[in-house]
Sequence to fold (449 residues):
Amino acid sequence: MLTKVKNTIEKFNMLEKGDSVVIGVSGGADSVCLAHIMDCLKEEYALHIILVHINHNIRGEDADRDEAYVMSLGEKYDCDVKIFSYDVEKIAKEKGLTLEEAGRELRYEAFYKTAGEKGKIAVAHNINDNCETMLMRFFRGTGIKGLGGINPIRDKIIRPLIEISRAEIEDYCAENHLEYYTDYTNNIDIYTRNKIRLKLIPFIERELNPNIVNTLYRTSEIMAAEDRYLSEAAQRAYDACEVSPKRIDVERLKTYDPVIQRRIIRLGFVDFSADLHDISYSNVESALSLAYKESGRTIELPHGLRAVREQDTIYFCRSKTTEPFAYEINMDEKKYYKELGAYLLLTDKKCEKNAKLLYTISFDYDKIVLPLTLRSRLAGDKIYIAGIGGSKSLKKLFIDSRIPMVERDSIPVLAMGSDILWISNMKTSDRYKADDTTVNYLHMYLLEE
Fold:
């Protein structure tokens, strides 16, 4: 058994000499076995081991017993132990998660916190867990990546027991006189994973394939290898399509096979979502459909993600909802506006010489009817441009200027009704801008404190 685990460690390059390793220990057979094996390898790899236990405060005295047992393991193996205690039921309700989801989220938060930047995290997933996970994903709907099963190594997480069966683990514990505790909730078939473990897999082993656990592990290795190949190909394709950060060229996208197209779309969201499992096949297909739609169309995705068709590109971003704003500007009143990130002053006087001026523009006062408003854009807004001999709608101006849709509602404009005098960082109306015929001036100043 020890040799088999060492082979897995070497095969996937899980450990290096001198590593600091956080081991998640629940008190069950899998994690107790892992802790013992890592202790056996401690000198060979010069490991610094920290046992981490999370008390979910769900099982009363049993949970307290497990916590005490893990503390005793720390003394036995002469290593550090960190205990985290959470009211998982309360947290799950607050976050709208199931108990399983909340517990997993809290566990890994504790593991990463303890591991720090350089530490590794060893968890006790085994080959049976891999089989259960593959079947869960299959029934929910998945692709090659999902059928790749549980990764032996991901980020700083390592799984030394991933090629070991649950039966082998229990035999190892018996041979080495390792005490462990079984969570009674593991034998309640109200959870999907438990139903698969307690009912479906035994049925498959009995009626269809007695070696299904190992069969699916081999399948997961094949799927994982093919997924790596396709991922590398998709990354090259994405790089070829990306014309600016998070913006891909539609015509280049269309040159690829749909298999790669879908992966290009998923890569567009990598920087925005830690868990791309939440981006479903139908989500990807919806975003991909933008390649065949007109500019301005938007696809909303889970967790506030968005894909936008703009001109000849698809742009990926987070949804950014900007509350409409409108402020009537009083003459000679210097006031701070968060939308500008500066103080604004409208006056017919020259600015003080010692003022910390950021920007200034002068208008023909005789053409203006007060009050003016600093606000977000509205339907029907237009600005006069001398070069085209007439007015242009803000919508068309923003489209032509390639301003992302998610940014347009946050751009402040200085308005007189629906007539726009000035667009922040963009344009001043040629109708109202002061020129050599101006007699009376209205100055707009943007100033620091």
